[in-house]
Amino acid sequence: MRFICGFLILCLAMTAILACFFLTWQFGSIEFSRTANAEPVLVTVNRGENAGGVIRELFNDRFDSRVLRLWLRQNPGLTQLKAGTYEIPPGAGVRQVLAIILSGREKSYQITFVEGTRVKDMLAVLRASEKLVHSLPAETRPEDLPEILGIGDHPNPEGLFLADTYQFRLGDSDVSVLKRAYEAEKSFLEQEWQSRDENLPYSSAYEALVMASIIEKESAVREERPQIASVFVNRLRKGMKLQTDPTVIYGVGDRYQGKIYRSFLEDRNPYNTYIIEGLPPTPIAAPGRDAIRAALHPDATDYLFFVARGPDSREGHIFSRDDSSHRKAVQEYRRAVREYKSEHAGELQGGTGSSESVPDTVSESSVGDSGNAGTAGSN
């Protein structure tokens, strides 16, 4: 009888040892297994989904379900998954996969509204995104957005959305991105308005936004924007017309095809700053943060004019205090353009460029008696 009892105990002990070896081997298989994907793969974890299901999906059911449950019980800290869509790198281990999902750092995408673009351009960018949920009707126009977004009475929402890059996740909609851009603009403008320089010729933060949009379109050189702002601020203080070409271009709409005609300068519309006094009624584009800062913190100068240094907008502008100096600067600009055309004649005639892309004159009134601020070479 003792022999039989001893034998049974030995068998049980051997079974336990073999079971331990088996589980250790199986647990090791789980620990050291890697996903088979050669490229990053997206996995979506639904609310309430358990870790075992996720692992079985990613590792092609290669683990015994009972062993997997035991392993997860031994690692309870890896089971509290967060719903979302996650990017799993190639050859990821089980622990790495679960750690990514536990972090809650979902796969994100981005969309960029470029500084100086218009609302219609933003809508085109949103429509082109394959990752966003498209809640906006296909026929949505810029003027429809205030009602859709619930952002108040704005017949023309130009400039109300901050030019910036926005991160979003799968399931986010175009409407949500626009609301974020609107809130970002509103918050940043209010912050800068509160810290603005004294004695600026704006009656509201919105007027500063209008100015910022003009500054944005006038210069592609970040460092000179406060100088550009100073010119316009000085002209407003003196009661001079702004006479800035980007407002003319905005006012004539689709009639502008790369060249400003005298008829455009004489066109009677509320955006033509060769005709109207002061600022146009709305922004003409989406300004970035630098342009908003420049509008509210302009340099202290006595400049009243500026003109591009040459056909390359990255070269910036020449600033002048009086009409005589401005006329000389305009001549320098024209000389630079002639030299450029001479050096690149083959390219301009061969299809890689066009004569209209490199203007040979600034607007006629920029060198006449009207005292234009000078905008040749605007971005």
E-strand count: 6
Tell me what portion of residues adopts beta-strand conformation: 5-15%
Spell the H/E element sequence: HEHHEHEHHEHHHHHHEEHH
- What is the 3D shape? elongated
Biggest sheet: strand arrangement? 1-2
Largest sheet: 2 strands, antiparallel
Q: How far is the first residue's CA from the last residue's CA? A: 101 Å
Whole-number radius of gyration? 32 Å
Oligomer class: single chain
What's the rounded overall pLDDT mean? 83
Number of helices: 14
Number of domains: 3
Helix content: 40-55%
What ranges have pLDDT less than 50 throughout 5 or more consecutive residues? 351-373, 375-379
Secondary structure class reads: mainly alpha
Question: Which structural traits does this protein have?
Answer:
45% helix, 379 residues, mainly alpha, Dna Ligase, domain 1, two-stranded antiparallel sheet, 7% strand, single chain, disordered C terminus, 6 strands
Question: What layout of secondary structure does this protein have?
Answer:
Blueprint: H1 2-32, E1 41-45, H2 51-58, H3 65-74, E2 84-88, H4 94-103, E3 108-112, H5 119-128, H6 145-149, E4 165-169, H7 174-194, H8 205-218, H9 225-237, H10 245-252, H11 262-265, H12 289-296, E5 305-308, E6 317-320, H13 323-343, H14 345-350
Antiparallel strand pairs: 1-2, 3-4, 5-6
